[in-house]
C-alpha cells in the first residue's frame, strides 16, 4: 500500500518531484515565479506545446475556438492562436497569465485572451455591454454614411433601405469576415467588383456571387480575411514538402474554378435563343462548335477534381481491416 507522498512502488517521493505533491495544495503562482521546490522553471513549461498535442495540431484535428484550462505560459494556446483559432486561456497564477498576455502582444495575436481565475468558478464574460456598444457604434456610422450619401446625391429614396441594399451589406461582411477589422472592407471591395465589373463581363455574375457566398460559409467561415490569415500561419509553420503540396492544391482548386466558370458560361450561352442551335452545312457536324466550347472547361474541371481527390486520399488514408498485414 502506498502512503501519502510515496510512489506506487513504495519509495518515498522527494520534495521536488511531482509525485511528492500529489496530496499537497500547490502554490501555482510561486511555481511560475521560480519560488517553488523546483530547480528552475516548472518541468511542464517546455517552451512549446507538448509533443502529443503538437502532433494533433499538425494533423489538423483541432478546429474552432479553444479553451485552454490551466494554460500556464500558454504555449499551446499561443500556437493555436497563431494558426487562426480563437483562444481563451485560464489559469490560477497571475504571473503565468501576465507572461502569456505579454507573449500574445509580442507575437501580435489579438485572438488570444488570458485571464487569472479559477476554472471551477469562472462563468465566462458578460458580453451584453459589448453588444450594446457594438450596436450603438454600428448605428452611428450607418447614420453618418446615410447623411453623407444624401449630401452627395441630393436625393434619397426607399431603395437605400431596401432588402437588396441590406443584403449587399450582409454579403460583404460575410465574404470578408467579421472577425478581423479589415474583413468587411475586403468583402465590400469584392462585392463592388462583382456588381460593377463582373456584371459587365458575364450575365451570370449573380450566380457566381451566390456560389462564392455559399463556398465561404461552408469552407471559410471566418471569411476571406480569416482564410488568408490561417493560410499565412500554416505556410509559416509548414515544411518545404508541405508548401509544395499547398501550391499544387491551390493550382488544382484554380483549375476547378476556371473549368466550372467556363462550363457555366458555355451552357448559359447555349441556352440563349441566338446560341441555342448551331447549324452546319457539313453533314454530321451539327452543334460541333457547341461541343468544342465545352471540351476545355470539362478537361480543366476533371483535372482539378482528380488532383483534389488525390490529395484528400493522401491526407485520410483508408484504415486497414483486421487481418490485413
Q: Mean pLDDT, nearest integer?
A: 76
CATH classification, class level of one domain: Alpha Beta
Task: Report low-confidence residues grouped into runs of 5 or more.
Answer: 1-23, 276-288, 317-323
Would you tell me the structural class of the helices and strands? mainly alpha
How much strand content do the residues show? under 5%
The helix count comes to 11
Order of helices and strands: HHEHEHEHHHHHHH
- Rg from Cα: 29 Å
Strands in their spatial order, largest beta sheet: 1-2-3
According to DSSP, the number of beta strands is 3
- CATH H-level superfamily of one domain: Vaccinia Virus protein VP39
Per CATH, what is the topology of one domain?
Rossmann fold
Instruction: Please tell me the CATH architecture of one domain by its name.
Output: 3-Layer(aba) Sandwich
User: Span between N and C termini?
Assistant: 44 Å
